[in-house]
Amino acid sequence: MNILEVKNLNVAAGDKNILYDISFSVTLGESVAIMGPNGSGKSTLANVLMGHPDYQILSGQIIFRGQDITFAKPEERAAAGLFLAFQEPREIAGLELFPFLFDAYKSLRLARGQEAGDIFSFKVKLDDELHDLQVKNDWSSRHLNQDFSGGEKKKAELLQLALAAPTLAIMDEIDSGLDVDALTIAGQAISRFKTPQTSILAVTHYQRVLQYIKPDRVIVMSGGRIVKNGGAELAAQLEQEGFSSLE
Ligand code: ADP
Ligand code: MG
Question: Domains along the chain?
Answer without folding.
Answer: 2-91+165-246 (3.40.50.300)
